[in-house]
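User: Quick sanity check before I run a bigger batch. Here is a single chain. Can you write out its predicted 3D structure?
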Amino acid sequence: MRHGKKVNHLGRTDSHRKAMMANMASSLILHKRITTTLAKAKALRGYVEPILTKAKNDTTHSRRTVFSYLQDKETVSILFREIAEKIANRPGGYTRIIKLENRLGDNAEMALIELVDYNTVYGKDAAKTEKKATRRRGGSGKGKTTAPAAKAVETAPVEDAVVVEEPKAEVTPVVEAAPAVEAAPEVDETPEAPAANEENAEKGE
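Assistant: Done. Predicted structure follows.
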C-alpha cells in the first residue's frame, strides 16, 4: 500500500533520482519537449515547475538556487534569459503531459512532456484564454462597443430616407402639371359658344 507516499522514487536511490531529475529538467529546458515514461513525466512536472516559478524573479539568489537543482550553467542562462520572459504572465501550469502509445519492448506507458508556451499547435487556445480574461474584466465595455454600432446602423437608414425623399420632391411637379390637362374642358366649352349663338339666331329669326 502507498499510504502517505507522496514521492515516487522510480526504483532508484535518492542520489540517482536527483541526478536523473536534474538531467531531464535540463533537457526539457533546452529542447522544450521530451519523451519519457508517464511515471517519470509526472515526477518531472513536480520537480521542474517550482524551478520555472523561481526563474521569474531574476536575482542572484534565484540563479544560485536554480543552479543548485540543475547543475548546468548553459541551462540556467537560457532559463532566465528566454523562458522566463515567455512564462512571465502565466500563473503556474508551465508544462503539459500528452500520453503516447505504450513502448514496444516492455509495454511501458509513454508520454510527451513539453512547455506550454512553446507549442505552436495549441497557441490559438492560449490566445482564446487571454480574450476570455479580457471579456470578463470588461464585460460592460463589450455592450458599450455594440451600442455605437447600433446607432450607426440606425443613422444609416435615416440618410437613405433623405435620399428617398428627394425623388418624391421631383415627382410633385409632375402632379402639378396635371391641371394643364384640366384646361382641356375649357377648349370643349368654346365649341358650346357657337351652339348658343345658333340658338340665339334661331330665336331672332
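The first strand starts at residue 33 and ends at 37.

User: Great, the batch can go ahead then.
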